[in-house]
Amino acid sequence: MRDRLSVVVGDITKLEVDAIVNAANEQLLRGGGVDGAIHRAAGPELQEECRKIGGCPTGEARLTKGYRLPARHVIHTVGPVWRGGNAGEPDFLAACYRNSISIANAQGFASIAFPAISTGIYGYPADEAAAIAVKTTMDALLELGGDPEKVIFCCFSEEGAAHHRAALDSILQ
Ligand code: ADP
């Protein structure tokens, strides 16, 4: 399992993978943070395809093409807004990872990269989010079998990466 999961620090829009995951909003309208960066790099066709989809409830995921991105596809998932932790946030966040991996599995994508969903504007504590990201991803890979062969946690800061490495180490020890 360890060789299928990696943690990198960097800009997810630069990754050449079968799919990058976008931390989108329920309207699937271009926003800030990683969503803004992905739309900027992909070009206006991405917003057009998102508009046709029409939206996505929190915890679910939707697939589009990657357009001008080096990634061939974008999986848009909507993380929960942090409201203190007792509003179902952990379950919604886990659903984002599970549903995104499920799409990659069904599509036969060998490689997928995740940003740290909900940990920016949506305010989810980064250490708790990383633990859910890693645990849910491992469980989904074991349960589904096959693709995706490689999962990258693409963090925007060294601190975010440290949380993901710590979560990996604590689960795999
Ligand atoms: P959310 O609304 O789900 O919190 P954000 O985009 O605000 O989404 O933040 C999610 C995470 O993505 C944050 O940790 C943020 O630092 C990170 N991030 C922002 N831009 C990029 C990027 N270009 N590549 C990777 N991660 C990014």
UniProtKB/TrEMBL annotation:
Name of this chain's protein: O-acetyl-ADP-ribose deacetylase
Originating organism: Stappia sediminis
Annotated GO MF terms: O-acetyl-ADP-ribose deacetylase activity
Domain of life: Bacteria
Pfam families reported in the protein's UniProt record: Macro
InterPro entries named in the record: Macro_dom, Macro_dom-like
Residue ranges constituting the Macro domain according to the UniProt record: 1-172
